[in-house]
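Justification of computing resources. Each target in the renewal requires a structure prediction run like the one illustrated here; the chain below, 236 residues long, is used simply to show the kind of job we budget for.
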Amino acid sequence: MKKLNFLYIIISILITACGGSDDGPEPVPEPTPEPVNNAPSLPNLDYPTEDLVCIDNNVTFKWLEATDKDGDKITYQVQISDVSDFSKTDYNDLTPDLSKKYNLPKGKTFYWRVKAIDSKEAESSYTKASRFFTERDAEVNQVPNQPTIITPANNIVISKSSVSIQWQATDPDNDVILYDMYFGTDPEALPLIIESASQNNYLATLQPKTKYYWKIVVKDHKGGVTIGNIWSFSTN
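Resulting structure tokens:
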């Protein structure tokens, strides 16, 4: 009888174990969501300003600080290009500062822009590109070349009552040149006959048995002046 009771207990335990629980599986806890990283605000360009002509080609670029809602550390990407769409960049740098200095070629047009990037790699958009210019080297103006005689030849004797005086000159910079002509009988006090004229000739009425003197002053539009020699001719 004791054996039957023991067997009954064992069978009951096995049946209970196999039946399991009616409560179902243990619930799996939801994962903790990662915090959302906010991108930095857009920085603002400060210098050089739009359409500025930079006299010094060592230019210090400046921009205003961006902010980050999460307090992340911010770096700035600076791009400078000579094309407005930035399809190529002449300079492309990262810096934690609010300024960066560049030595730029002279006589060129450039565009620049900046964006902010936080330490978790979230970034703002680029600022609107700003155009500026670097000044080209100052040009050294070369004065016109010395004028030369075409006619009459120097110290010639003329038998006519009039003569067409002609000369020529050139400018090494190919500047437009104008002429002053001095003509008379006193080489120490020649009167001005033609002033700032483009013509290179003068029809002179002559007296017999007289010696005449003349000279040409050549001027360019940049203020360059060349004074020619004094030439002469005589009449019978």
